[in-house]
Amino acid sequence: MSTVDSRRDFLWIAPLAAAISVVLPKSLHAAIGAAASAPPATNPVPFQVFKAETLAASEKTLEAAPGTKSLIDVKDLPVTVVMTTETAKAAKEFEWHEGRDHVVQILDGSTMYELGGTPKNGRNTKPQEWLAPESEGCSKVMLGKGDMLLIPRSTPHKRTTTGSVAIILISTVGTVTS
In terms of domain of life, where is this protein from (predicted)? Predict the structure, then answer.
């Protein structure tokens, strides 16, 4: 096969491969969502991790040129703020909330979060609150002192702390207004 034939084949096959890679995951996702026993945990905003290094760089930038840098911009949303400390504790199940977002700031120690994915065998525990023993395709994120994490509503999540951790948890309450 000549170089010209290889390029021609590539130019013909590449767009098809790209189209399949875009269409196939959506159809698989729809099939998985339809098969779940709980409403699919849909989330238009992915979870966000704010590592300590990123926050320190933002602070340094603001010291050089005073002003404001929005990390999370949500308007007119009521919140609750709690401080939590724990040692050697692991959540048994994933949870997700239809009416609450979380912002987690690690004050000291470290903890691991499992985030996102598709909940399996989920059940409704109270209005707008869900639990599931697993969440297929979740991501694991280790957080340490100074790190911050945004968990948008409807994002499955669970925390495992092997040592100890002190956190501030900010939770929104209510519906989003645009």
Answer: Bacteria
**Length, in residues, of the chain:** 178
Give the CA angle between residues 171, 48, 140 to the nearest 5°: 100
Please name which of 47, 91, 95 lies closest in space to residue 72, comparing C-alpha atoms. Answer: 47
Q: Is 51 exposed, middle or buried (0-12, 13-18, 19+ CB in 10 A)?
A: middle
Cβ neighbours of residue 37 under 8 Å, at least 6 residues apart?
Answer: 121, 122, 123
**In contact, 173 and 110? CB cutoff 8 Å:** no
CATH topology for 48-172?
Jelly Rolls (2.60.120)
Domain ranges of the chain: 1-35, 48-172
Model confidence pLDDT, tens digit, residues 136-168 = 999 999 999 999 999 999 999 999 999 988 888
- To the question of pTM greater than 0.70 for the whole model, the response is no
